[in-house]
Amino acid sequence: MERVAINPMDAAWLYVEKEQAPAHFGPLIFMSCPEGDEGFVQRLVAEWRKSLTFAPPFNYRLAKGLIPRWEITPNDQLDMEYHLRHSALPAPGGEAELGIMVSRLHSHKLDRKKPLWQCYVIEGIGGGRFAIYLKLHHAQMDGMAASMLMAKCFSTDPDARNMPAPWTIGLKSSPEKLAAAKLKKQTAASQVSAWARLSNIRRALSTLGKEAYLNANSSLFAPYQGPKSVLNGRISPHRRYATQRFELAQLKRIADKAGVKINDVFLAVTGAALRRYLSEQNVLPKKSLVGQIPVSIRPAGDDAIGNALSFVYATLGTDLDDPLARLKAVSQSTESAKSLQSTLTVDAIEAYTSIVLAPYITETILGLGGYLRPASNLVISNVMGPRQRMYFNGARIEHIYGPSVLFHGQALNITMSSYADEINIGYTACRDSLPSMQRIAVYSGEAMNELEEALGL
């Protein structure tokens, strides 16, 4: 079989994956059947079972050997009984019952002997709705790549028909697109000499060390500055998943009034919800929790396989009771982090990120997570989805969420997915580490209202 090399950052996801910490993620897509079409889901599943042409990475299987590589699996060797599952919620179904099912499905590792994906079509939500949970591996794509895949699969035209299954489309860019993205990256890098890039990386690392670790009043944060908390112990394989939803306009109003970014509002609301949740259990650390925030460095139009991420660290203001003070602290922290990386080219950011993450990745590969001081208290992602309302063969895409990855030392992940005119937030947690985790989602809604009131909106 033909084999495909895996770059080191993608391969790292295979090494950090453990039995209790699978490295797969969503998306979870809520859909409404075309009006009056009661047999839509059954026909969809039947048509998809006949879709037996697989594009990369849906035909990539991990090859045997010491060095991780993908091998391209022939179409006739993929087992659709494994990859495509049709399920139904017990009546009367609803979003709560769907959350329970997804929690269970998200708990199980993908089989490395097969291509690393599964698609669940889940009906019975009520109101003519169903869901698609596409289980993907982080070694093959990141959240932005998954979002681009969804954009390629769906249409803004509600009358579009005969649309193919996601695995027949895949992610691998055409040679022209890959060449253009590579040229764009090389052009940006060529404008800065190799020595200047090394100097910029060294300067960024020096600033991070001096400001984050030696300046107690700095708004710049780095790995291993967060306190030890109940979020940062060993985890079990069992998951719990919850969701929250906001109108994009609501976050924009708050951001505009406060003079901050939408993501700052999201982080501050998250900090407020976590402060309340941990306070109720009498386990709120005196120091603020610190979030690790993935930042996409994927060039526009680059829908290639793999990950293109950097990471920044920011306070969540869980040590502050006042919502406006918390929002200010979060905003200053994220601005400091962005400013630090703004002097680096994309290839320099990749090198910088590898250096900064090296201790954490090593710790995770060795299975030491949860025993040592956490690199961050949780990962908080912001994935930009389609900006227009989308459809699939006439079915309306209602909401898009992102069940995500947990590790030993990180029992909670929060992912915000923007879609059309709404913000969809998914909360993935270790069921045994965080009892009644759904309260965090509820408290986030109340924290958003509290922030509006504090701003006089």
Profile the largest sheet.
7 strands, mixed
Question: If you compute it from the alpha carbons, what radius of gyration comes out, rounded to the nearest whole angstrom?
Answer: 22 Å
Low-pLDDT windows of residues: none
Percent of residues in beta strands? 15-25%
CATH-defined architecture of the largest domain:
2-Layer Sandwich
Structural class: alpha+beta
Q: What count of domains describes the coordinates?
A: 2
Corresponding CATH superfamily of the largest domain: Nonribosomal peptide synthetase, condensation domain
Shape: globular
Task: Give me the CATH fold name of the largest domain.
Answer: Chloramphenicol Acetyltransferase
Helix content: 25-40%
SSE succession: EHEEHEEHEHEEHHHHEHHEEHHEEEEEH
How many strands?
16
The top level CATH class name of the largest domain: Alpha Beta
Report, as a whole number of angstroms, the end-to-end distance: 61 Å
Mean pLDDT: 93
Number of helices: 13
Domain O-acyltransferase WSD1 C-terminal: 306-451
GO molecular function: diacylglycerol O-acyltransferase activity
Domain O-acyltransferase WSD1-like N-terminal: 7-266
InterPro entries: Acyl_transf_WS/DGAT, CAT-like_dom_sf, O-acyltransferase_WSD1-like, O-acyltransferase_WSD1_C, O-acyltransferase_WSD1_N
